[in-house]
Amino acid sequence: MKTKLIMIAALIGVMAFGSCKKDYTCTCTTVIGSASTTDAHQINDVTLPDAKNTCDNYETQANNSYPGGTTCHL
What we know:
There is one protein chain. The chain is built from two helices and three strands. By secondary structure, the protein is of the alpha+beta class. It has a three-stranded antiparallel beta sheet, with helices on one face. The protein is elongated, with a radius of gyration of 19 Å. It starts with a helix and ends with a strand. About 10% of the residues are buried.
């Protein structure tokens, strides 16, 4: 019984911290020929999955808008 209570408490703790909203920085590097540029985008008060989706969207938009290749990561 005691083990079950500890496991339930641990699961609740993981769920609580897993959905925590934080600030993230998405760093995008664009390479055109031999030149490259790096931009940082602040993504504030979101969960990690939402930050990853937003960062992926920055990459997609850049690749659709500019020649060359852009890669973004948190």
